Amino acid sequence: MTVSYYSEKFQVPFFECDAQGTMHLSALMDHLVLASEHQLQEFGAGPTQLAAMALGWVTTEYQIEIERLPRQHEFVTAKTGVPQFNKFFCYRDYFLLDEHSHPIVTVHSIWVIMSFATRRMIQLPVAELHLDACSDYSATVVRFPKLVKRDWTAVDYQKDYQVRYFDIDSNRHVNNVHYFDWMLDSLPGDFLRDHQISTMLIRYERETRYGENIVSQTQLTETPALTTAHRITRGTEVAAEADVTWQKRS
């Protein structure tokens, strides 16, 4: 079948932008995920319906490619669809389009269903989610590029945080977009002012919960390309890791 795509237009508000008037990556991801929730709601598989079954959608990986981030007051369109799914994984694509329908941000993602009772992933309840109404089943397991293995004995930047009550979402764990802010906030302000993300690969390993102390660590490499490696830890456990490439702001 043809993949069913869902689109919605919005204007970038000033309060979701940085000092240069560029949209925060975390805010951008919020809008893209919101579009997918609206699509799921149409098929009867949105957060409200899943909560009634004590289930929730959880992201395991994002692969992000950015031509540019939108500016404040700019009108853009969030577009999303599910190219395929299998027994355990749902593969969802996101696109942020400018006013000429040109994609300025592309995101590939992997989602699972988590049981609130066990806090573990379960097999996708395809019938209840109506996934076959908007996509096709495929036994193929899609694999994203691997994160670079690193020695974290030394880091270039580090910041400590404590998970706040308002960081928790209806899935009863830290909303995934907060990891973007924790990771990027560890970098110096002048670096963030002068650079924009080109690509980002982020993988979530473990949940973090209210009140936990976490550490955001960053390693910076300038050659052959300007890259940063990030990880969020809670104690001795890794909660999330990411590799980011950067370009100079124009």
Structural class: alpha+beta
Could you give the distance between the termini?
41 Å
**Coarse shape:** globular
Strand content: 35-45%
Domain Acyl-ACP thioesterase-like C-terminal: 156-248
Pfam family, one: Acyl-ACP_TE_C
Family: Belongs to the acyl-ACP thioesterase family.
Keywords: Fatty acid biosynthesis, Fatty acid metabolism, Hydrolase, Lipid biosynthesis, Lipid metabolism, Transit peptide
Give your account of this protein's structure:
The protein has 250 residues and is of the alpha+beta class. Helix content is 17%, strand content 39%. The chain has five helices and eleven strands. It has helices at residues 25-42, 47-52, 126-129, 177-185, 189-194, and strands spanning 5-11, 55-66, 75-85, 90-97, 103-115, 121-122, 157-162, 195-204, 213-221, 227-234, 237-248. Strands 1, 2, 3, 4, 5, 6, 7, 8, 9, 10 and 11 form an eleven-stranded antiparallel beta sheet that branches. 32% of the residues are buried.
